[in-house]
């Protein structure tokens, strides 16, 4: 036996743990992929049902067994759905409210998150804990007090209740996400900027925000999705039909006699396209932002 080489039996014994780890890794990856596939199917089936229903005549929507491929395919359902009500007006209203709300959420959440992540002041941690505690408070609890407040301000039947609060502190969830992202950036950046005479807002605006694009994109996507799909609050504060957003317009396909399912699904598919397009364009930033926000506490 040559010197410096272990016996064959020892080499086989040493290789066993490596093979076991490889088997465990393969099994783990397989389970993860199967779970991801199951989750994808669970989310994809309702979406495919929406598309299928949007192309069917009304009498074939709930037939059994289900028919996934429409026969005949009625493309006119989309034309009728978009013309039976002022869909273009509702679309513009939703764009107006959503874009301004997203801008407000990004700006206000970034400022508050910067204060919690980079500035030192008495009671900072206590205030942050209180902020996180508000995430456990259902929004419906504050709905009536907010309505009374906005009624006293004469803001009912305007877009102010939908937009202005987003500029006044943002969402606790978005503040938490951006705070976690700012904590991953080295403090040496702030110190170097202070030596050059930069103040806190200049550090935030010129140094940290350009580096926080993934986190800001994550906030923008979440905010766009939530504001675009918001139904209850616009239903409460908006009275005029001309001021309705898309979710309120979609509710118009329902009445006391039933639901116009094929037209409702056609309009819903068109309404979901902006969210889908934005997610696919910025999905790289979105995934990076979600992964980075959990890197440091």
TrEMBL record:
Keywords associated with the record: Cell membrane, Membrane, Transmembrane, Transmembrane helix, Transport
Membrane topology: Multi-pass membrane protein
Domain ABC transmembrane type-1: 91-282
Protein family membership: Belongs to the binding-protein-dependent transport system permease family.
Annotated GO biological process: transmembrane transport
Annotated transmembrane regions: 31-52, 97-117, 126-150, 162-182, 203-226, 264-287
CDD domains: TM_PBP2
Intracellular or extracellular location(s): Cell membrane
InterPro entries: MetI-like (IPR000515), MetI-like_sf (IPR035906)
Protein name: Carbohydrate ABC transporter permease
Organism: Caldilineaceae bacterium SB0664_bin_27
One Pfam family matching this protein: BPD_transp_1
GO cellular component term, pick one: plasma membrane
């Amino acid at each position: 036996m040559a010197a410096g080489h272990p016996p064959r039996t020892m080499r086989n014994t040493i290789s066993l743990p490596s093979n076991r780890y490889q088997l465990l890794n393969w099994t783990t990856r397989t389970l993860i992929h199967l779970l991801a596939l199951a989750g994808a199917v669970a989310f994809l089936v309702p979406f495919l049902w929406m598309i299928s229903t949007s192309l069917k005549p009304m009498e074939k929507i709930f037939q059994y067994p289900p028919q996934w491929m429409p026969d005949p395919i009625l493309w006119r359902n989309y034309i009728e759905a978009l013309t039976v009500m002022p869909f273009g007006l509702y679309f513009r209203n939703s764009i107006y409210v959503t874009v301004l709300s997203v801008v407000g959420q990004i700006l206000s959440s970034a400022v508050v998150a910067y204060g919690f992540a980079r500035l030192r002041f008495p009671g900072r941690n206590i205030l942050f804990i209180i902020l996180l505690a508000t995430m456990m408070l259902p929004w419906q609890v504050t709905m009536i007090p907010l309505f009374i407040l906005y009624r006293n301000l004469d803001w009912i039947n305007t877009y102010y209740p939908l937009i202005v609060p987003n500029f006044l502190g943002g969402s606790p969830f978005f503040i938490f996400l951006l705070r976690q992202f700012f904590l991953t950036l080295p403090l040496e950046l702030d110190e170097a900027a202070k030596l050059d005479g930069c103040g806190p807002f200049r550090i935030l605006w010129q140094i940290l925000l350009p580096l926080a694009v993934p986190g800001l994109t994550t906030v923008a996507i979440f905010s766009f999705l939530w504001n675009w799909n918001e139904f209850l609050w616009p239903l409460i504060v908006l009275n005029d039909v001309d001021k309705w957003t898309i979710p309120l317009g979609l509710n118009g396909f329902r009445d006391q006699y039933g639901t116009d399912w094929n037209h409702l699904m056609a309009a819903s598919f068109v309404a979901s396209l902006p969210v889908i397009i934005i997610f696919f364009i910025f999905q790289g930033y979105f995934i990076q932002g979600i992964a980075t926000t959990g890197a440091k506490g």
